[in-house]
Amino acid sequence: MNDRAAASPLVLEDGVVWPDDAVEVGRVLDAWGVKGGIKVLPFSTDPQALFCTKKWFLRPAEAASGAVARPAARRTAPAGTEPAAPARLSAPRFLKVRQAREQGDVVVVTAEGLEDRNDAEALKGARVFVSRSAFPTPDEDEFYWVDLIGLDVVNREGQPLGKVVDLLDTGPHCVLRCAVEAPAEGTPAERLIPFVSAYIDSVSLADKRIVADWGLDY
Prior knowledge:
The protein is built from four helices and twelve strands; from the N terminus they run H-E-E-H-E-E-E-H-E-H-E-E-E-E-E-E. The chain has 218 residues and is mainly beta.
């Protein structure tokens, strides 16, 4: 396969192109009501990414690692009388949101093409993506998690502390989980650095670098 073919955009059935900056922001939990509504669990405590655009992109749920199919139950009803198994999303699709609002810890949504509960149940477990370019502009000194992943972290002496591979939400603040490349014997393979002003001197998305007041032996 040549590079051009590998870079070909994903075009969905309705002709919409999957965005190359798609970011996963939530998961469909279940149907909501009987008129095609769905319940979505946002991945952030602030679900603004789900409200910033009416254009959502869905991928099928991923099977859990090591999951196996449950053995079929013994047939107890005459052949042909069992209820059909609910359909499930099997390919990426575009979803045009009509309305979305918070309800407790979830976001309830109505969308075009979801007219009844069966339509909604077909999306159970689906992964929800939106285009990064649709995110609201953050305030000064605020950052989206997705923009911090992959940044190199160095201390004030310029010594590398690792690369951000994840962020942990501890409640009061977030913590950078930094993977250390080829750690020396006796040194940690990763570092956990609180993402607070007491330890973080600067963040440069342009330079892909975070400077932290953090020692190699912490």
